[in-house]
Amino acid sequence: MKLKLGYKEMVRRAEAEIKTIDVAEAMRLLSADAAVFVDLRDIRELYREGKIPKAKHVPRGMLEFWIDPDSPYHKPFFLEKQKIVFYCNLGWRSALASQLAQQMGLEDVCHMAGGFDAWKAAGGAVEPVEKR
């Protein structure tokens, strides 16, 4: 079966519409407390590898519901006037999430190129996540 639109093309299109920051910029934002970091990875990835300190975990499958103030699952931090930096493992899910957040009306959003793998490779701080 041939798909009409594969993930590579979806990510490419998303990246053409969104802001992408590199790990160095992400580190500056984190150290200045100038953004909310949103980790989109599966909880098992967080348990296994940890996360960026102070990052909020938002499962990718719940993003739309957590952003929308009319949803019973809404998380108020999405409506605060602040920059939101999405990240995942490699930057694919976060590119799609940034595009979606913009489509829903969030204005100051971006994603981190290379994701958590790039963060770790650059020596970024990692906070463990304990199983609940």
Largest beta-sheet characterization: 5 strands, parallel
How confident overall, as mean pLDDT?
Answer: 96
The DSSP helix count reads 6
| Beta-strand content bin | 5-15%
Tally the beta strands. 5
Amount of helix? 25-40%
Low-confidence stretches: none
What is the element string, with H for helices and E for strands? HEHEHEHEHEH
Structural class: alpha/beta
Straight-line distance between termini: 41 Å
Strand order of the largest sheet: 1-5-4-2-3
Comma- or semicolon-separated keywords:
132 residues, five-stranded parallel β-sheet, 6 helices, 5 strands, 14% strand
How would you explain this protein's 3D organization?
Helix content is 39%, strand content 14%. It is an alpha/beta fold and 132 residues long. It has a 5-stranded parallel β-sheet. Strand 2, helix 3 (43-49) and strand 3 form a beta-alpha-beta unit. Helix 1 (7-17) packs across helix 5 (92-104). The longest helix has 13 residues, at 92-104. The radius of gyration is 14 Å and the shape is globular.
